[in-house]
C-alpha cells in the first residue's frame, strides 16, 4: 500500500473567482484535497499608476490615488496629500486635520465593514454581508454629502480639504455613531461568535509573529499575530496624539494566535476604536479655515516619504520632485502586496476550502496590489 | 465525550441566537428602495454629468489643463477688432469673452468625475449637475458638445 501515490493536480483559481476579491489568479497545486502550493499571479488590474502620475500635475494625481485602494479612498488621499505637504512645507489648518481624521476613520469603518461582510460571504453566510452593506451605505451617504461622490471622493486635498463640512453633517455623523454601535454587537452575535464560523476560521491560516515580521506584513494582518504596531500610535501623525484609542491585537481567543479568526476579530474591534476616535474628533473640532493658503502646488526639488495606517495596513508614498509642476517620480508602497506575498506559506498544507478563508482573512484589494 | 456534546450545544445555541436576531431584523424597515421607480434625493454637492454654460465661458482652457484624463477639447478663435467683445453674465463677474468657441466638447467615456475642472473655472460656467442616468448604447453618443451656437447634447446622434 505504501507505493500508492496520488498525482498532484494543478488547478486554476480565478481571475473570475467570486472569493478572490477582484481579479486575482491563484495557481493551486493540489494533492487530493490538500493544497501543496499556491502561487498568486497578479497584474490583471495594473493601471500604470506610477507612470501615469509622472504625466499629470500634483493635484491631478489625486483622482488616481483614489483608485488604488478603492474601498478606502479617503485614507489614500490623506497619505498622498501629506506627502506633498511635506514636500511643500505647508502646514495644514487644525480644522482641516480634524475633518480629515473624521473622514479617514469613517472610511476605515466602511472598509472594515466590507472586509468583514465579504469574509462572511466567502465562508458561506449571506446575512452579515447584507447587514454590513446596509450600514456601509450610511457612511457613503455622509461622504456623498461632504464630497459629492460615493466611492472615489477626491475630498482630502493638498493643504486641507476640498470644501468645508456641509451644514448638518456633524449631526448626521453623530447619528451614525449612535446607530452603528449596537450594530457591531449584532454582527458579533450573528458572525463572530457563531460556532460554524469559528470552526471554519480558528487554527486556519496561522501567521506566527516571526513570519509576519519577516514578510513585512502591516495593519490588521500583523496585529492579528499579536504585535501591537499601529502607526497612529507608534509614529503619530496628524492629530492622533490628541485622541484616545486602543489598538486591538489578536489574542488567540478561539484557537492559535494569528489565525484567521484573530485577524477578523482585530477588524471588528478596530471599528469600535474608530467610532471612539470619530466621537472625540467631533467634540473637539475647531472653527477656522479648512484649507491652507498656497499659490500653486510647485514644490522645490527634493524627495519625501510619508506612511500612514490604512485599513489594510501601511500605505506609503515616495515622491521625488524636480521643481516642476509634475512629480518626477511617485512610488506607492502598498500593504496588500506584502499581504499577498505570504499566501504560499499560509496555504501550504491547507484544505482547498480553507484557501478561500485565508485569502478573505488577508483582506486584499487588487487595486492596490497591482497599482 | 463531554466536549463533543458541549460543542453541539454551543453550536446550536449560537445559531439559534443568530436566527432570533435575523427574525428581529426581518420585521424592521427595509433598507432598500425600488430604484427605477423610487429615486433617492441627491445632496447638493453631487458630482454628476458636467454641464457648461457656454455664454459664460471665456475660453481660458484652465479646465482642459486641470483635467487629469484630458477629456475636454476646446478650440478658440480670437475675436478681431471690428467685432464687439461681449461680456459674461454679471453673476460670473462680467468678464470679457475674447474668443469664439466653435468647439467645446467633453468626452464622458473618459471623464473620471473628479470635479477638478469645476474648481479651476474662473467664471464657474462649468458645473457638475445631479444627472447620472445618461447611459447610451453607442459610445459615440457620450461625446457631448457645448460650443457656441451648438445644441447642448451628444455630438453625434446615432439613433
Helical content of chain B (DSSP H or I, runs of 4+): 10-25%
So what's the CATH class of chain A?
A: Mainly Alpha
* Fold-level CATH name of chain A: Cytochrome-c3 Hydrogenase, chain B
* CATH H-tier superfamily of chain A: Cytochrome-c3 Hydrogenase, chain B
State the CATH architecture of chain A. Orthogonal Bundle
What's the CATH architecture name of the largest domain in chain B? 2-Layer Sandwich
Class of the largest domain in chain B in CATH?
A: Alpha Beta
Tell me the quaternary state: heterodimer
What are the SSEs and their pairings?
The complex is a heterodimer of chains A (371) and B (159).
Chain A: E1 9-13, E2 25-31, E3 34-41, H1 49-53, H2 58-66, H3 73-88, H4 94-123, H5 127-147, E4 156-157, E5 160-161, H6 169-192, H7 195-201, H8 209-215, H9 220-223, H10 231-234, H11 260-284, E6 302-310, E7 313-321, E8 329-333, H12 335-341, H13 343-347, H14 352-362, H15 366-370
Antiparallel strand pairs in A: 1-2, 2-3, 4-5, 6-7, 7-8
Helix pairs in contact in A: 2-3, 3-4, 4-5, 4-11, 4-14, 5-6, 6-11, 11-14
Chain B: H1 2-26, E1 50-52, H2 62-66, E2 72-78, E3 99-107, H3 116-120, E4 126-128, E5 143-145, E6 153-154
Antiparallel strand pairs in B: 1-4, 2-3, 3-5, 5-6
Amino acid at each position: 500500500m505504501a507505493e500508492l501515490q496520488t498525482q498532484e493536480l494543478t488547478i486554476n483559481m480565478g481571475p473570475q473567482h467570486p472569493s478572490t476579491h477582484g481579479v486575482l489568479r491563484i495557481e493551486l497545486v493540489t494533492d487530493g484535497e490538500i493544497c501543496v502550493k499556491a502561487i498568486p499571479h497578479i497584474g490583471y488590474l495594473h493601471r500604470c499608476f506610477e507612470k501615469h502620475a509622472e504625466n499629470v500635475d500634483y493635484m491631478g494625481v489625486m483622482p488616481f490615488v483614489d483608485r488604488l485602494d478603492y474601498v478606502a479612498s479617503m485614507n489614500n488621499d490623506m497619505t498622498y496629500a501629506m506627502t506633498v505637504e511635506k514636500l511643500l512645507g505647508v502646514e495644514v489648518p487644525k480644522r482641516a486635520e480634524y475633518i480629515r481624521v473624521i473622514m479617514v476613520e469613517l472610511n476605515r469603518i466602511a472598509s472594515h465593514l466590507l472586509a468583514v461582510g465579504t469574509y462572511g460571504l466567502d465562508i458561506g453566510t449571506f446575512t452579515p454581508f447584507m447587514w454590513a452593506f446596509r450600514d456601509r451605505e450610511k457612511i457613503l451617504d455622509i461622504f456623498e454629502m461632504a464630497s459629492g461622490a460615493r466611492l472615489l471622493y477626491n475630498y482630502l486635498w493638498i493643504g486641507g480639504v476640498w470644501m468645508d463640512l456641509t451644514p448638518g453633517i456633524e449631526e448626521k455623523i453623530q447619528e451614525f455613531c449612535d446607530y452603528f454601535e449596537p450594530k457591531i454587537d449584532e454582527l458579533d452575535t450573528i458572525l463572530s461568535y457563531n460556532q460554524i464560523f469559528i470552526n471554519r476560521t480558528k487554527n486556519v491560516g496561522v501567521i506566527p509573529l516571526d513570519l509576519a515580521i519577516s514578510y513585512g506584513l502591516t495593519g490588521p494582518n500583523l496585529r492579528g499575530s499579536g504585535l501591537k504596531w499601529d502607526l497612529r500610535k507608534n509614529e503619530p501623525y496628524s492629530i492622533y496624539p490628541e485622541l484616545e484609542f486602543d489598538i486591538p491585537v489578536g489574542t488567540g481567543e478561539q484557537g492559535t494566535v494569528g489565525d484567521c479568526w484573530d485577524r477578523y476579530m482585530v477588524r471588528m474591534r478596530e471599528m469600535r476604536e474608530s467610532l471612539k476616535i470619530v466621537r472625540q474628533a467631533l467634540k473637539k473640532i475647531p472653527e477656522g479655515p479648512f484649507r491652507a493658503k498656497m499659490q500653486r502646488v510647485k514644490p522645490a526639488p527634493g524627495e519625501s516619504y510619508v506612511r500612514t495606517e490604512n485599513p489594510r495596513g501601511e500605505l506609503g508614498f515616495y515622491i521625488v520632485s524636480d521643481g516642476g509642476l509634475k512629480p518626477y517620480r511617485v512610488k506607492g508602497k502598498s500593504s496588500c502586496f506584502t499581504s499577498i506575498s505570504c499566501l504560499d506559506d499560509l496555504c501550504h498544507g491547507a484544505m482547498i476550502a480553507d484557501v478561500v478563508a485565508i485569502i478573505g482573512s488577508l483582506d486584499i484589494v487588487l487595486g492596490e496590489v497591482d497599482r | 465525550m463531554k466536549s463533543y456534546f458541549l460543542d453541539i450545544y454551543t453550536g446550536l445555541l449560537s445559531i439559534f441566537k443568530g436566527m432570533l436576531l435575523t427574525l428581529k431584523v426581518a420585521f424592521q424597515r427595509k433598507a432598500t428602495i425600488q430604484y427605477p421607480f423610487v429615486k433617492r434625493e441627491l445632496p447638493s454637492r453631487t458630482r454628476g454629468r458636467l454641464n457648461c454654460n457656454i455664454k459664460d465661458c471665456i475660453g481660458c482652457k484652465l479646465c482642459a489643463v486641470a483635467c487629469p484624463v484630458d477629456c475636454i477639447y476646446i478650440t478658440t478663435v480670437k475675436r478681431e477688432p471690428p467685432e464687439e467683445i461681449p461680456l459674461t453674465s454679471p453673476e460670473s463677474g462680467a468678464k470679457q469673452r475674447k474668443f469664439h468657441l466653435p468647439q467645446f466638447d467633453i468626452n464622458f467615456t473618459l471623464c473620471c468625475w473628479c470635479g477638478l475642472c469645476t474648481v479651476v473655472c474662473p467664471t464657474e460656467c462649468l458645473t457638475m449637475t445631479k444627472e447620472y442616468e445618461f447611459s447610451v448604447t453607442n459610445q459615440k453618443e457620450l461625446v457631448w458638445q457645448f460650443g457656441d451656437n451648438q445644441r447642448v447634447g451628444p455630438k453625434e446622434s446615432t439613433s
